Structure prediction request, 223 residues.
Amino acid sequence: DGGITQSPKYLFRKEGQNVTLSCEQNLNHDAMYWYRQDPGQGLRLIYYSQIVNDFQKGDIAEGYSVSREKKESFPLTVTSAQKNPTAFYLCASSMGHNEQFFGPGTRLTVL
Amino acid sequence: GQNIDQPTEMTATEGAIVQINCTYQTSGFNGLFWYQQHAGEAPTFLSYNVLDGLEEKGRFSSFLSRSKGYSYLLLKELQMKDSASYLCAVMWFTGGGNKLTFGTGTQLKVEL
Prediction:
């Protein structure tokens, strides 16, 4: 089945540690996105990538990094520079300006 | 910048009709999306409008007026499972490609 997978579903991290969230899609979509969602809030764009080996900062990129070495994969690293990393992280992909399809999300908690 | 407004909460009765409004200000407008999100889950796509008018899809319809910066999502024959957050999102074109900006969502509660 085609879709987007994110792992892990729940992630716990100690303060000061970097952590990488996985996002894989087999929809053959060119564009991929990372969003962050906090309780009672909408989604905020962290990074996005329109094609392989290229990505752009979104609205809240500070403290995060990404790579896009393969079309299918767009991992997000939450670095220790991110001051408030506890949130629900959602990965999405799309073809052109069509609708974005979302993965199931990773809930990150900093202890 | 982009600005999207939608009501925070709405309550409706099972079997009724509810309209969720969304107003926006944006440059480079390239379409408006509605998504449904149940608690703790990923958003799922409901509708897309890029031209003025009404798009109907089963119990769900979405309307767009670009000149007024206004859209609404209409849900008919409400069911308990429709209790969820409904996100309005505007697509706009930047030098780096198309981006989506989301509203904060409208939490809909369907009661008996």
